[in-house]
């Protein structure tokens, strides 16, 4: 009996010790331990990634965020037609739905599964396979096909994209959106082009650029209000998107003639300086196309000049969305550094070609020192550039202390979402729970929301600002000093909310 009793006592002692050990672990440590236990079980890891609080999505094109199924609905409700051969939307009048007509109404696709599936595949990367058309060309070619629907249903697009973000446990999104409806481009056509940027700015302002900014703000305010109606915000049936804070980056189309690009950049600076909904600007369109390549240095000069006029306006830039073979080698060697140093970018979108830059290690150190965040879009980089796995620089950025955050880019066209971006990052790079939490925190730390940060330090560890130090981040109860600090700083409030979401999430484990 004695050996048996000793065995029982040993087991009891072991249970007590393990219980004490578990109790001694923090909720974050227990959550990290659970994630490690399911690392090789993708379905469980997917569920974990879905419920994970993700902070913000800082690189999200509104047009590309909409799934093709929603775009078909937009086209049908707008009475648009579709070219059966190319799947490109056309203005009415349309042919009837019978007899396999060449220009049927988009609504005809509801009763024609062949046409419906053809439209979904043409407007997204669904079912795309390498062949005559590259992933790059299919991806960017889709926008011209469905653009007539997205451009005429902005409020519906905002509602759909914000709601998907809410369901994906995001709390903040910066949508890239060319919100003026082409007004800046029309204004540019009325003035003479000046190589002297100061004269060009004066000419555009004299021609009515501030009026364009005012009207753009009114247009967006109406679209925002309509989106909230669609989501039933403020009612008992409010959709998840109602809990997402939405801001906008004015989207400059850098593939257009330089007078239009300058006018749009100027409008972006004006909006970011006068309308709180616009928190900054970005330059878009494929970096490898002729005009963005040919005019790249001129675009940087425009940004450099206008940044001097509007120094408080925020800038994030697409840079390094390139790969060897897509452009000549010499075009791989300077875009990221130039965007940071001459374009005054506080964040970089993609940054895939960083190791092709001149002195890449020096650039990585510089980006870390300047605290320039990289918006990482793994699915997009794979589909467009064919860069993934060990070829992607995400681990390099992390190794050199460059802040990073996951982004969806064009989740509707890519058929992805933020959950799968996080899942892909974990599975491709063996990231830890601590890595994921850091990325979510960095997304809000580098957002363009106004106000001070919740954190006094973020590089080595996240330390609370003095006003809130000593308390539990995200707690419902907080000191009067911390409450006053949060009330005065929107960015800190959003970060405090994220910490609260993490506390709820970690309690489950």
CATH superfamily of the largest domain: Metal-dependent hydrolases
Structural class: alpha/beta
Shape: globular
Q: Can you tell me the CATH architecture of the largest domain? A: Alpha-Beta Barrel
In short:
By secondary structure, this protein is an alpha/beta fold.
Helices and strands in order:
Elements (H helix, E strand, L loop, with lengths): L1 H23 L2 H11 L4 H10 L4 E6 H4 L2 H10 L3 E2 L6 E2 L22 H10 L12 H17 L2 H14 L4 E6 L5 H6 L8 H11 L1 H22 L14 E9 L4 H17 L3 E7 L5 H5 L1 H14 L6 E4 L15 H7 L5 E4 L9 H11 L2 E4 L1 H8 L8 H6 L4 E3 L4 H4 L3 H12 L3 H13 L9 E3 L5 E2 L15 H9 L1 H18 L2
Q: Could you explain how this protein is built, in words?
A:
- This protein has 509 residues and is an alpha/beta fold.
- It has three domains: 1-26; 56-62 and 152-449, TIM Barrel; 450-509, no CATH class.
- Strand 2 and strand 3 (89-90) form a beta hairpin.
- A four-stranded parallel β-sheet has the order 1-4-5-6. Strands 7-8-9-10 form a four-stranded parallel β-sheet. Strands 2-3 form a two-stranded antiparallel sheet.
- The chain has 23 helices and twelve strands.
- Helix 8 crosses helix 11, helix 11 (209-230) crosses helix 12 (258-274) and helix 22 crosses helix 23 (490-507).
- It has helices at 2-24, 27-37, 42-51, 62-65, 68-77, 113-122, 135-151, 154-167, 183-188, 197-207, 209-230, 258-274, 290-294, 296-309, 335-341, 360-370, 378-385, 394-399, 411-414, 418-429, 433-445, 480-488, 490-507, and strands at residues 56-61, 81-82, 89-90, 172-177, 245-253, 278-284, 316-319, 347-350, 373-376, 404-406, 455-457, 463-464.
- 51% of the residues lie in helices and 10% in strands.
